[in-house]
Amino acid sequence: MRLVILGGGESGVGTAILGKKKGYDVFVSDFGKIKGNYKEILLINGIAWEEEKHTEELILNADLVMKSPGIPDKSPIVKKLLEKGIRVISEIEFAAPFTNATIIGITGSNGKTTTTMLTHHLLKSAGLNAGIGGNIGKSFAWQVADNKYDCYVLELSSFQLDGIKNFKPHIAIITNISPDHLDRYDYKYENYIDSKFRITMNQTEDDFLIYDADDEAMNEWFTKHKTNAKLIPFSLTKILEEGVFINNNKMDIKISQEEFTMDTEYIALEGKHNMKNAMAATSVAKLMQIRKATIRESLSNFQGVEHRLEKVLKIQNVQYINDSKATNVNATFYALDSMNTPTVWIVGGVDKGNDYNELMSLVREKVKAIICLGVDNKKIIDAFGNVVDMMIEVDNMEDAVKMAQRLTEKGDSVLLSPACASFDLFESYEDRGNQFKQAIKNL
């Protein structure tokens, strides 16, 4: 069996290692450059590879193709493979059949990294032998090749779910759905929503789907479709017969005929959206039969995720907050919603079809100045030019931070929450967040 892997990054190299171990004839092809450390691993394992090209005669003879999530279906080589009827799948689909571990799959437009890391923290604190992967950390396929975990907590992007046929998590979470990546879904929101719900398409009545009962897009989907999984909703606004909800500042957990409550003030993560992430993770912990005391303790000592509402430093009584991971409007909505002081907001980057209207009331209420950090800021200026007193354009992080410092007074906050992808000026959202943190230290 010839396995061709498109993309020589973390998921590609991990799949190559697992494929080789399982007896496939493996070839890795990357249209860009492959990083040195990955090349070394491929060479050590005797895996053939090419970079900066896709050689058709070495690819179109595949029995199976694993496509890295960053490569769109519209790319010429993928089109040719599909025309030839060659199966193109994601790393998750390829790796899952090779493990008997319990799989917890987490998707959503926002909150999935925090929920994934918090869920993993809960399971590890309870002494479970749990791995973490998917869209974060070490490749899932690579971990399956090493074969050392009893359960996996996987963060799954819509792109990874687009490449599944039979993959089925025992427990699935959809944190929320808001428009994102619409450029990959023909600018049709319903296509993106359907893509997220692929996480439950193979689930049976022995499996579970945990979801946000306050989310319009999800509730709408349930009116037209159904899943075989047992539904476990969570809500900030409704009292539920089964699921997790808030009642008088207490988190009420009613799952599998059991009930317990927890004071919300002991939850380390701040903000409404993080309360939802905590509810989703707690639901998993309960289904995995983790003790209440362990759940309480884990929720109170979890440290959060880098680049997600990360408090960097306080300088002259101004708090600097790094939310570089906010690459869409909905994530930035949560960030602005959690601000309690006058805010200088740094925003901008590569727009994925953003509609800034939903931020309007929060910007009016909380934002005193906007710093646009992008190559093309026209949409942001058109949206908020008449709403804030001060609007400034910059093209590098150092200027953005220096400008922010000039515009603040004691008691203000500076929030980097770009609502956009980072690729116009930075390598990644991590690079953007790290440059922000460095620029603050240089003040």
From TrEMBL:
GO terms of molecular function: ATP binding; UDP-N-acetylmuramoylalanine-D-glutamate ligase activity
Domain Mur ligase central: 106-284
EC number: 6.3.2.9
Catalytic activity: UDP-N-acetyl-alpha-D-muramoyl-L-alanine + D-glutamate + ATP = UDP-N-acetyl-alpha-D-muramoyl-L-alanyl-D-glutamate + ADP + phosphate + H(+)
First-level EC class: ligase
Cellular component terms (Gene Ontology): cytoplasm
Keywords: ATP-binding, Cell cycle, Cell division, Cell shape, Cell wall biogenesis/degradation, Cytoplasm, Ligase, Nucleotide-binding, Peptidoglycan synthesis
Pathway annotation: Cell wall biogenesis; peptidoglycan biosynthesis
Residue numbers binding ATP: 108-114
GO BP field: cell division; cell wall organization; peptidoglycan biosynthetic process; regulation of cell shape
Domain Mur ligase C-terminal stretches: 307-420
SUPFAM superfamilies in the record: MurCD N-terminal domain (SSF51984), MurD-like peptide ligases, catalytic domain (SSF53623), MurD-like peptide ligases, peptide-binding domain (SSF53244)
Annotated PANTHER family: UDP-N-ACETYLMURAMOYLALANINE--D-GLUTAMATE LIGASE
Family: Belongs to the MurCDEF family.
Job of this protein: Cell wall formation. Catalyzes the addition of glutamate to the nucleotide precursor UDP-N-acetylmuramoyl-L-alanine (UMA).
Protein name in UniProt: UDP-N-acetylmuramoylalanine--D-glutamate ligase
Organism: Flavobacterium weaverense
Lineage: Bacteria, Pseudomonadati, Bacteroidota, Flavobacteriia, Flavobacteriales
